[in-house]
Amino acid sequence: MRELTSAVDLAVRRLDPGLPLPAYAHPGDAGLDLRATADHTLEPGQRALVGTGMAFEIPPGYVGSVHPRSGLAARHGVTVLNAPGTVDSGYRGEVKVNLVNLDPTQPFHVRRGDRVAQLLLIPVATARLVEVDVLSETARGDTGHGDSGGFGPHGG
Ligand SMILES: O=c1ccn([C@H]2C[C@H](O)[C@@H](COP(=O)(O)OP(=O)(O)OP(=O)(O)O)O2)c(=O)[nH]1
Ligand SMILES: [Mg+2]
Q1: Do the interacting molecules here have an ipTM over 0.90?
Q2: Which residues are involved in binding substrate (predicted)?
Q3: pLDDT at 152 over 90
Q4: Ligand 1 site-directed mutation target among 62, 80, 88, 100, most atoms within 8 Å of CB
């Protein structure tokens, strides 16, 4: 893979100096892996707000997006309850991960230092609302929620 040609500066404060900075596991990865500051046991169906020990200064025009790790979901049924979590650019507190164990039978053990989620830095527009009486016409109009067909090879 070619070297990164562009990256956005992201200020980070380590509230827990014992943990490494969040990092991309591979060049080209979209998410910085976030680690847990403490041990947690999640019984089936249980959730926990897991500290990451990191506070960020998300640049204006961006949002920090807290995503699940697909390996945790596939192997253990563990995901981020509010996925994707929204870290506002004005937020200066510790980023926390609302981790939930959806496995019906197996408890899940988080250990300090485990990578529990990933943070994506995503451009986001701020809307300036313009109230109107009529919206512009389109081919779709107001159809949605499956109006174009269901699932399956033939569109259902
Ligand atoms: O997964 C997440 C989601 C949010 N936050 C922090 C950063 C974010 O800026 C703040 C508020 O999040 P959000 O707007 O999603 O929550 P809310 O329920 O609307 O709370 P508030 O009224 O404080 O905005 O909480 C996290 O640390 N992790
Ligand atoms: Mg909010």
Answers
A1: yes
A2: 69-71, 82, 86-88
A3: no
A4: 88
